[in-house]
Amino acid sequence: MENEAEKILIDYAPYIAGIISALVAYFSYQESKRRTNHDELEDLNDRYRKEIDRLQRENDRLRKENNHE
What kind and span of H or E run contains 8? Predict the structure, then answer.
């Protein structure tokens, strides 16, 4: 019985290895895609924050100018 199980395992080892390799490649690809999307969203968020800061400074400057008049 034990020899039969070993023989079956050895016979199917290349197929099992191929399936595992395909799964690892697929999950690696998905993780890479997720990270790329995450990085793009972080970049977009940074640009919006910079623009908001710039607009707030400009708003403060204009309020000060308006108060002096």
Answer: helix 2-68
pTM above 0.90, yes or no: no
Give the position of tokens 């309020």: 63
Separation CA 61–CA 52 (nearest Å) = 14
Provide the pLDDT for residue 69: 64
* Secondary element (H or E) of residue 32: helix 2-68
pLDDT at 1 over 70: no
CA distance 47 to 29: 27
